[in-house]
Amino acid sequence: MSSITVAKVLNNNVIIAQHPQYAEVVVIGKGIGFNRKTRDRINLSSVEKMFILRNQEEQEQYKQLVPQVEEKLIEVMQEIVLHIMQSSRQPLNEHIHIALTDHISFAIRRNEQNIAIHNPFLYETKEIYPEEYNLAEYAVERINAAMGVKLPPDEVGFVALHIVSALSNRHISEVKQHSLLIGDMVNLVEDNLDYHIPRDSLDYSRLVTHLRFVLERLRRGETVRETSSLDGLMKREYPEMYMLAWKLTKVIEQRVHIPVYAAEVSYLTIHLQRLAQKKEDEEDMELPE
């Protein structure tokens, strides 16, 4: 029966061990280090709900982090990561143990010092990643209850991005970049239309979802079927919205350094024209009879 051998106990919830397949590993599990001594053997089959950090760089980072973090938080974070895995039914990049634990630890310290950090892409994150946002709400509620703190709603958005990063195997900086880019493009649309899109509206949700899918298609290298007839129609019928769509695709190209297919301009024009029409309808309703 496969087992690991304890090399060092870092605390009640984290040990360093020798693994028969991965050599030295960091093992995270509730009570995994309690009453353990060096050279103790632990049957893998008898240990439930534990995580093994196999990547050496991740191991070293986590070893440095553990002494700086309250042990209760290590335990709570393990519960949260397990909940994310079970809810999403997807493997997580093991870096989440370091990145999210470090982020939450720092967020708690900021909260204790009454230092508020505004999340500039909270609305975008909620719209683009609704499932991850719900998981992040659970995480923040669990942290607040277990640690006796009250992290602000802005933190839900930050945690959601870490979850997206771990589920998609993308670095958190890339995930943030996409959320910030979508926010900037929404602002560009609003400036050009001179129209504020209500953040809880279906119009906002449609626009953000479309922009998200554009970025996802680019990231995956998917091609969009060229529709020259549609392109000609959009350019002819809605020249202003077509030009705005063209501007948006140029912003995308500059920020993500990937060429955007011409067909994306046509499809984006359709969404923008719907918004422009909505603005006109609202202005007509406001005119005195």
From TrEMBL:
Source organism, top-level taxon: Bacteria
Record-linked InterPro entries: BglG_antiterminators (IPR050661), CAT_RNA-bd_dom (IPR004341), CAT_RNA-bd_dom_sf (IPR036650), PRD (IPR011608), PRD_sf (IPR036634)
SUPFAM superfamilies membership: PTS-regulatory domain, PRD, SacY-like RNA-binding domain
UniProt KW keywords: Repeat
Signal peptide interval: none
Listed SMART domains: CAT_RBD
Domain PRD: 68-173, 174-282
PANTHER family in the cross-refs: CRYPTIC BETA-GLUCOSIDE BGL OPERON ANTITERMINATOR (PTHR30185), PROTEIN GLCT (PTHR30185:SF16)
NCBIfam families recorded: antiterm_GlcT
Protein name: PtsGHI operon antiterminator
